[in-house]
């Protein structure tokens, strides 16, 4: 009886295998073989030629649609991470935390835009320190707006609403007073009216939480939120109320009918209380805010271990940048010696690499964890300083991370830590020029005319299957549960997955490039494999470029 049951199961699975083989002709990728797994599962083998051709054709097009077959919710995001006044007790720590807040915000904006999600970035440059503004200068210029004038209307509306609510509350209180003391009541009424004109207005945030059935504790709102002043006696708005007006204006200009709006608040550890206060005040005054989905993300701090702790500048962003630049210069000096240049162009290149390394170090750490930058170590490793390590490759033979030359990746090699580009001929071919300028190789053919059946190496299949094919999933996974989150649950975002993806990709690409001769002798029978491999490299380049853009790292156009 048991044997017959197994036979029935095998028969049904074989029917499924036959169906898969015939119907996969209409799937995104054709299945060449389907086998039974030893544990009654199904093992599918993709048609390599079909998979290579479809993915490479797609990724080498001008504007590949990564998410054309992925169904995603597309809400409007408001990234409400703003600069904060630094804590005088530890200004360097607050500045570093603020920098992380800005970098995570820019990363999330880049991911949302990449997925086609409409996003508004509401960081106000006037609230960002000059050093941080310099590090994120391009992003701030391109993706932020000044809301000072445009949000005045929303601010005036909020002030009038607060005054009206306060007057109604006072009037109700006066009506409840003892009517038997008419004379005293009249005098008290006059004094109350005079007092009402000069008294500040506050909101009790606990009442807002209770009225709107919001969750406290755990992953909900802080339990120590209480009464907060929103208007002074002179009717000057508080800082929180001004930010509410900016959020309200940003929401109104982006809101579309029947599209859910998600307000994503990113804050440093010291500003979590402030950010939640802003959001609750906003919810109490705005119907639009109450209809939005609030998400609060508190980032871990950024700690620095320095050689000495005597200088007040130790641990500042400026000192960290200087340290990274110094290490980059030392790495170049090991290779080139006295030939290392210190002109303005070279200094700017090192500064660009240093900024990219800092971004990589910060974003490679899980959002809730502490970023640890150890400036006291002389021997850099991937664990202690991944950004600088990947930029200069001081440790031999670990893995490589692409930097850029002429808008195309190069590979940093081991040993002396000097960035070595791919061969000039390969850069020329992959850039789409179609020839190397010497006439040795034939013109680059259209992708439709390339035969990818010659790509038989396991490393080639791995680059395509593990990286090019998985890249859209990586982008979606970066946003974690952002589409399904409910109030009071943890928001999981994973920018560190992009960093790990680049680590792994650059390592495997380095192995493939060191083992495989790309531009071999231009004999007629070798030309097809040259073209196929160059198209594969072009696909990998596209994935690398887009991965770095997700981290808000711009290409270095010249080494």
TrEMBL record:
Residues 165-198 are annotated as: Disordered. This is Putative DALR anticodon-binding domain-containing protein 3. SMART domains: DALR_1 (SM00836). Residues 440-559 form the DALR anticodon binding domain. Residues 187-198 have a biased composition (Polar residues). GO terms for molecular function: arginine-tRNA ligase activity; ATP binding; tRNA binding. It comes from Stichopus japonicus (Sea cucumber). GO terms for biological process: arginyl-tRNA aminoacylation; tRNA C3-cytosine methylation. Residues 165-186 have a biased composition (Basic and acidic residues). InterPro entries: DALR_anticod-bd, DALRD3, tRNAsynth_Ia_anticodon-bd. SUPFAM superfamilies: Anticodon-binding domain of a subclass of class I aminoacyl-tRNA synthetases.
């Amino acid at each position: 009886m048991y044997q017959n049951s197994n036979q029935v199961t095998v028969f049904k699975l074989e029917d499924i295998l036959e169906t898969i083989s015939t119907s996969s002709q209409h799937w995104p990728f054709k299945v060449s073989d389907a086998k039974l797994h030893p544990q009654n599962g199904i093992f599918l083998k993709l048609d390599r030629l079909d998979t290579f051709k479809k993915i490479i054709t797609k990724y080498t097009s001008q504007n590949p649609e990564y998410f054309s077959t992925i169904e995603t919710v597309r809400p409007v995001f408001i990234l409400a991470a703003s600069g904060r006044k630094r804590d005088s007790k530890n200004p360097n720590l607050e500045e570093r935390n603020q920098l992380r807040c800005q970098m995570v915000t820019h990363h999330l904006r880049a991911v949302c835009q990449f997925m086609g999600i409409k996003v508004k970035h509401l960081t106000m440059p006037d609230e960002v320190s000059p050093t941080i503004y310099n590090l994120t200068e391009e992003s701030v210029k391109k993706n932020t707006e000044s809301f000072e004038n445009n949000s005045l209307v929303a601010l005036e509306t909020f002030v009038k609403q607060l005054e009206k609510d306060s007057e109604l509350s006072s009037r109700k209180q006066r009506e409840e007073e003892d009517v038997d003391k008419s004379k005293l009541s009249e005098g008290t009424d006059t004094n109350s009216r005079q007092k009402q004109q000069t008294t500040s207005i506050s909101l009790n945030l606990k009442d807002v939480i209770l009225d709107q059935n919001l969750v406290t504790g755990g992953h909900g709102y802080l339990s120590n939120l209480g009464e907060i002043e929103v208007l002074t006696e002179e009717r000057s708005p508080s800082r929180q109320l001004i930010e509410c007006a900016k959020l309200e204006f940003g929401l109104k200009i982006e809101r579309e009918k029947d599209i859910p709006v998600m307000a994503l608040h990113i804050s440093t550890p010291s500003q979590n209380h402030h950010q939640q206060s802003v959001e609750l005040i906003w919810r109490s005054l705005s119907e639009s805010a109450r209809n939005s989905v609030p998400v609060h993300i508190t980032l871990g701090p950024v700690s620095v271990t320095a050689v000495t702790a005597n200088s007040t500048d130790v641990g500042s962003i400026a000192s960290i940048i200087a340290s990274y630049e110094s290490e980059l210069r030392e790495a170049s000096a090991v290779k080139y010696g006295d030939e290392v240049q210190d002109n303005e162009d070279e200094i700017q290149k090192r500064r660009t690499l240093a900024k990219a390394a800092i971004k990589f170090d910060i974003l490679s750490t899980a959002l809730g964890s502490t970023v640890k930058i150890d400036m006291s170590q002389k021997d850099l490793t991937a664990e202690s300083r991944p950004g600088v390590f990947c930029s200069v490759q001081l440790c031999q033979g670990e893995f490589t991370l692409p930097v850029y030359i002429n808008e195309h990746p190069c590979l940093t090699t081991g040993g002396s830590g000097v960035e070595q580009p791919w061969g000039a001929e390969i850069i020329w071919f992959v850039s789409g020029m179609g020839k190397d300028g010497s006439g040795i190789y034939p013109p680059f053919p259209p992708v439709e005319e390339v035969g990818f059946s010659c790509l038989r190496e396991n490393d080639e299949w791995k680059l395509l299957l593990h990286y090019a094919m998985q890249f859209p999933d990586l982008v979606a996974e970066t946003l974690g549960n952002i589409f399904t989150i409910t109030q009071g649950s943890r928001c999981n975002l994973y920018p560190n997955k992009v960093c790990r993806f680049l680590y792994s990709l650059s390592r495997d690409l380095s192995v493939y490039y060191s083992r495989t001769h790309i531009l071999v002798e231009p004999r007629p029978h070798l030309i097809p494999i040259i073209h196929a491999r160059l198209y594969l490299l072009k696909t990998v380049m596209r994935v690398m470029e887009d991965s770095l853009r997700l981290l808000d790292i711009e290409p270095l156009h010249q080494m």
